[in-house]
Amino acid sequence: xxxxxxxxxxxxxxxxxxxxxxxxxxxxxxxxxxxxxxxxxxxxxxxxxxxxxxxxxxxxxxxxxxxxxxxxxxxxxxxxxxxxxxxxxxxxxxxxxxxxxxxxxxxxxxxxxxxxxxxxxxxxxxxxxxxxxxxxxxxxxxxxxxxxxxxxxxxxxxxxxxxxxxxxxxxxxxxxxxxxxxxxxxxxxxxxxxxxxxxxxxxxxxxxxxxxxxxxxxxxxxxxxxxxxxxxxxxxxxxxxxxxxxxxxxxxxxxxxxxxxxxxxxxxxxxxxxxxxxxxxxxxxxxxxxxxxxxxxxxxxxxxxxxxxxxxxxxxxxxxxxxxxxxxxxxxxxxxxxxxxxxxxxxxxxxxxxxxxxxxxxxxxxxxxxxxxxxxxxxxxxxxxxxxxxxxxx
Length: 394
Ligand code: BGC
Fold this sequence. Notes:
Layout: H1 2-14, H2 30-35, E1 51-60, E2 63-71, E3 77-81, E4 86-93, E5 99-101, H3 109-113, E6 122-123, E7 129-130, E8 134-137, E9 140-143, E10 152-153, E11 166-167, E12 176-183, E13 194-202, E14 207-216, E15 220-221, E16 225-226, E17 244-247, E18 251-253, E19 266-267, E20 279-280, E21 293-297, E22 306-313, E23 318-324, E24 328-332, E25 356-360, E26 375-376, E27 382-392
Antiparallel strand pairs: 1-2, 2-3, 3-4, 4-5, 6-16, 7-10, 8-9, 11-12, 12-13, 13-14, 14-27, 15-26, 17-20, 17-22, 18-19, 18-21, 21-24, 22-23, 23-27, 24-25
The site of beta-D-glucopyranose has 10 residues, from β24 and β25.
């Protein structure tokens, strides 16, 4: 009986952000279990023991895909697929202890093969845009795949989000997963064989730590990030417009009509981009044509590990903090979500029902010498850290 109840709980929480299945374990009904049997494949470690479990999750490109579920000592769970290095769910308690996933994601690989806009994915070789899909390095001009009008976005047509990564050895008791990918010289137009490893660690202080490492045999731009879309309420029938946001940035990078930075570092003071003290996301969004989709210049002089942004959803009491060693963060308010993609539970994912906070170097840096360099040289090791930390407030 207890096993069935726990299994049922696992099935229910694994249903991504579904309003009609937001029950807590005690309220879970037999109907929930029965109706969701088919989509049950995925997210939860049924005995909620600290550690990591692995399961087969379909195939693509002739390769076996897996889903890994990391659980910490408090029962917080993060599921990650080796397809795209994708975070498919991040289950955290609200202020009353009810657990729901706070990220957009699907229970099945098919949801990802349908190419949602980078839900939860690891982005590479270059997060965000490179103007006209071109850059010049050491006197040579490189032409990249263009997949966003005339620009290159998030690594191109088949970026790191659409390949199967190789998982390193796992230790069942340790909620940690390393994924590696070799991006070959010339892939999507980039120079050099780039060896990348991304390590996800779920700590007992409820942080998902992501360590990014890479080496190359030719100079190349690199800008790895994670593209999780958060809805802290755990329910996409709520927009994110009432969430309170702080970003520790006195400046941001204004963009042109194709979302390429103009090169300016503009002060946020007196503008709708000033989140140096908390503001509700929706308070001034109408003054930003299209919604927020901008890189913020974090207030730091070096690559120290600092709090970049914090978001609180008062209704659920969930709080997300983002720490990073990177110089920038892309704040994106799900402007292009338009209801055409549905959750596993059938709910349309509408505009502004999720936000992204992507730690990064600035967009189009390879063409903007004044921005911090995003070039990795042979012999150097690229390494940076981001943590997504969840907690609750009353
Ligand atoms: C970009 C948006 C883009 C979204 C999904 C974000 O990182 O800044 O412009 O639409 O990713 O592709």
